[in-house]
Structure formats: C-alpha cells, structure tokens
Amino acid sequence: MRLVDYLDKGASLGGDAPCLVCGEETWSYAEVIDLSVRVAAGLRARGVAPGAKVAILSANDPVAFASVFGISRAGGVWCPINPRSEAAENRELLDLFGCSALIFQASFAGLVDQIRSDLPELTTLVCLDDDLEWALTWDDFLAAPDDTVVPAESVEDDLAMVVGTGGTTGSPKGVLLTGTNLETMSAITLMSYPWPGAPARPTYLALAPLTHAAGVLCFPVLCLGGKIVVMRTPDVGSFLEHVERHQVTHTFLPPTLIYLVLDHPALPSTDLTSLRCFWYGAAPMSATRLEEALNRIGPVMAQLFGQTEAPMMIATMAPGDHFRDDGSVATERLSSAGRPAPLVNVSIMGERGSLLASGERGEIVVRSSLVMRGYLDNPEATAEASEFGWHHTGDIGYLDDDGFLHIVDRAKDMVITGGFNVYSTEVEQALMRHPGVADCAVIGLPDEKWGERVTAVVLPRPGTSIDVTELKAYVKEQIGAVKTPKQIEVWPDLPRSKVGKVLKTEIKKKLV
C-alpha cells in the first residue's frame, strides 16, 4: 500500500466521517482527500516527479500531516524532518536525502533561510502559514493548473519514506522504508492490539511528534476510518483533557511523558474509561512505574518495541499480556518488551552468527518484511546491519522460556567493571524502584581500578530529596555490590533527544 491508500481506505467507509481534529477545527475524510489531491497537483505542477523526495518541517499540525498523503498521491517520498533539531543537522539530512521540495511552517522560516543556499537540489519551498519573499505561499502552491495530471496508479518503486537516524553519534543515516515495511507494521498493529468492532471507529490522540512514532501509528487508525486528534503542543494537562473530551481510544507516549501523566494532579479526576490501548515505547519504561500506570490509568497499557530500521513492531505486548490468567499483574513480564510480533522472526545471536538458546544473552536480530530496504547511499552500513542474513538491532537481550523478549542494554551502553558485564538497564530498573527517583541514566566512566565504574545520574521526584548513601544501599540490596553504582549524581534534569530519550553521550561529556 502507498501511504495515501490508508487515507483512501478510511474514506471508503464514509467520506463525511471526521478524519483530523485540532482545537475547534475538524476535517472530514472527503476534505482531507481533496487537500491531498491539491497538494499532489501542486507538487507535479512544479516538476516534482514520481520518486522525488519531499520534506516536511513542522510541529504537530493537521494540514502538514495531510500533506503527507499529497506527497504519496503524487508518487513522491515523504522525508519527515524533526522540528526540534538544529539547523546544521537538518541541512545535513536534507542534503543527504536529496530533497527537491520542502513544506514548512513559518516558525521555522529562519532555520530554512539559513540553510537553503547550501541545498541546490531544493528548488521548491512552500510556507504553510505566512507570506515570505523567497517561498511560495500555501494558497499559491495549491493553485495548480486545472490540467495538472496526477497518476492514480502506484509508482514502480515501493519507497515510501526516508527517515534520519538522528545523528547523536556521528553523521546521521537515511533509513529507506518501503510501503511494504509500513504495511507490515500496520498489519501487526491491527493484529496485536484491541480495536473497537465496526461500526465503532477508533479515536487516536497524537501528542508525541507526528514526525516519529505518533505519525506512523496513524496509518492503521485510518484503515478503520478512525479519527486523529492532533495536539499542537505537548502539554500533559491538556492531554488528559483531550482524552476525556474526545473519548480517545488509542494514544502513544514515551515513558518520560507517562511519568508526568502519573504525577499530574488532574489524573485522579479524569475520565479515562474510553481508552482501549495506551501505547508506550521508544525507550525502556520503569517496571515500577508501569505497574503504577496499570493501577491508576487502567488495564490498557500496551508496549511496542522497534527501531527506525524496523518500525515500531519487532515485539508487542497487548494490554492483556500485562496480567496473569487470574487477573493479577504479571510483574515478571513488565520489564520485557513483549513477545516477537506475528510477522517477525526474532533470534538472539552470538559470535560469528551463531543463534543462542532461550535464556542466553546476545544481540537481538530480526528477519521480517518489517525491516528496511537499507541505508540511503551507504552500502557498507547496510551490509553491516544485515550480516549473516539477519537485521542487527544493536540491542543486547534474551528470550525467556515463555517467549518474552528482554532487552538488557544497547551493546554500546554495557559497562565492563572489574571484568564483569553490567547492563545499564538492569541498574536503571533498580534505581527507578526507589520512591524518590523520577528518572535516571546509568553509564560507565573510566576508572583506574575497575576499568569502568558504574555511574548513575538521577532525577528526584518533585518535592523529594535523594540521600546518595541510602540510595546506594537500596540498589545493593536488590542487585548486589558489583552492579551498584559507585558514583551517583543528583541532577535537576537529564539531557534528552528530540523524542525524549536520555542522551547518555551528553552525560558522559559532563562527567568525564
């Protein structure tokens, strides 16, 4: 399926049904289809040919998101650009992708003006919401000639998206995602999680950036004729109001934002009974806080595990998987990533391509039509990621006897101290069980005696203070002396990426 086929499928269930909602404005499926046709015509009229790469630089905005389907309808390739990235990083991505057109919000005009002279292939600039001398206005862009022909058939190439890997460690790579990759992801989503039965339609709330997980999760919702409620700004109090007001059935947040939801004073009085599926992912979640979420938000929490190269659905854990047959919380599963998804083969690989037995730790590898085509113009990195015929995730983990996948660390985050392997995720889970810790990160720092010393940076919960000596004793009692941090720093905040992941590289820079 092309990306626009998800929209067209939803429209076939009723064009008058609401498709996109933002604030007091609502766009029906028919209206979003009309806009996508006009965007496609605007691109083709300006020489954007099938297969060309078109970028969108915007905060959460329904018109910007609707433009994704116009790009697809024109046969183009969507390149989401993170609005929180710096100018240099976005220039590097646009250059790497070879984008010929960019649709952007006026709030990013300064950034675009700063980099556009360095991007000779970027010949079409369109501003969504202002009149700039050097860019097309939105109205002028949509005023394509009536005889502009937009092909209805799929183009030969299945490429649907090019997504940057982020570039937190060196230059970013462009991940080539095909329509087949996203169709597999959508199929797994529809197979693995609860959905209302027809004629009821799902309502999905998008607070997290539509340039990332929140965006691609919209595709299976559209297949069912569902409604997408778009939040322009990430406010937790407003998030709770939206869930109640719109009777939201599905939503997604990274763990850091879920922690803020749990700590928000409005949570106890908010009606969350409409929720069927509250996805969490993009970073490990504290098992302690997940159990709290199951009790306070409801039995609707649903994990997903994936990466840009294998989007979203390598492993899944539906709401019911968080509980035993007797209805009690399955605490032993809460630190897992769920079971391998139905259309995904997952194995644990040791040295020289050997596959390991249950319980043995090694690199998590994947085979599936979920896995990317490769990295743009980077055959060496593509070959490295697919060595021995499996996609290499870079995550260390194991499969237990019940088939649940446990991620113990990123390979690069493992700490070797005194000859022992210490997995930072295990230490972080122990720290997060302490009632005074809101969030944390564990790294290894150079040490003359130990080689590396286990080091933790913790963020206290509001209104609490951390006694470092007491916290070390608390962790030691749980996981032993070797894994207990020898150094604990208490910080008022943790450095984070554009999608809320803690940046351990930045922590190391401050502490080394």
TrEMBL record:
Report domain AMP-dependent synthetase/ligase positions.
14-376
Query: Which Pfam families does the UniProt record give?
Result: AMP-binding, AMP-binding_C
Keyword match Translocase: no
Instruction: Report if keyword Ligase is assigned.
Output: yes
Which InterPro entries does its entry note? AMP-bd_C (IPR025110), AMP-bd_C_sf (IPR045851), AMP-binding_CS (IPR020845), AMP-dep_synth/lig_dom (IPR000873), ANL_N_sf (IPR042099), ATP-dep_AMP-bd_enzyme (IPR050237)
Q: Which residues form the AMP-binding enzyme C-terminal domain?
A: 426-501
**Which keywords does this Swiss-Prot/TrEMBL entry list?**
Ligase
Gene Ontology MF terms: ligase activity, forming carbon-sulfur bonds
Which PANTHER family does the protein's record reference? LONG-CHAIN-FATTY-ACID--COA LIGASE, MEDIUM_LONG-CHAIN-FATTY-ACID--COA LIGASE FADD8
What family, per the record?
Belongs to the ATP-dependent AMP-binding enzyme family.
Identify this protein by name: Acyl-CoA synthetase (AMP-forming)/AMP-acid ligase II
